[in-house]
Amino acid sequence: MSLNQLIQNCKNNNTKAQSEIYKLFSSKLFALCLKYSRNYAEAEDNLQDAFLTIFKKIDQYKNKGSFEGWLKRITINTALQRYRNEKVFDIINENNIEDETIEIDEDSVSLDYLLKIIQELPDRYRLVFNLYVLDGYSHKEIAKLLNINIGTSKSNLARARQILKNTIEDFKMGQQSQSL
């Protein structure tokens, strides 16, 4: 059965089609949930909430653009909804924002380690970092999604990069001292 047929069947509340859509996309969407969640259990909750929203709003998908992209937007919004009502963002003067570049020597820092330290960032930094760096949102889009101003988005990104840079440098120093 084609994806378009599955989508049409989901619009008719066909549970088998919903199950197929879940099987097709749940692993990708779960990986997305992990990026925006504090832990594994919260990511599982976000995935379930996202699929409830997806099936409730599937009539709004008009076969324009990528279905997977539509699913990802709903999933990200679902995960971010948990943070919107919390005061996780500080308002920061944007005049003192320095953009930090991070040099990563791929031989000394694994992708698993990078993902781990990104996951350990405070919520406000992790969310902005993931949206901007990993998912390609602009600061204007991030500000709208998180209900913050553009300067706060920029400063949280700069702070996330600084924390990651320091953590990677500390890690490398630890590795060098072990090899001496």
TrEMBL record:
**MF terms per GO, please?**
DNA binding; sigma factor activity
Q: Does the keyword Transmembrane helix apply?
A: no
The RNA polymerase sigma factor 70 region 4 type domain covers 112-162
SUPFAM superfamilies (UniProt xref): Sigma2 domain of RNA polymerase sigma factors (SSF88946), Sigma3 and sigma4 domains of RNA polymerase sigma factors (SSF88659)
Keyword list, A-Z:
Sigma factor, Transcription, Transcription regulation
Tell me, which GO biological process terms does this entry list? DNA-templated transcription initiation
Which part of the chain is the RNA polymerase sigma-70 region domain?
Answer: 22-87
Q: Which family does it belong to?
A: Belongs to the sigma-70 factor family. ECF subfamily.
Query: What protein is this chain from?
Result: RNA polymerase sigma factor
- Tell me which species this is from: Neotamlana laminarinivorans
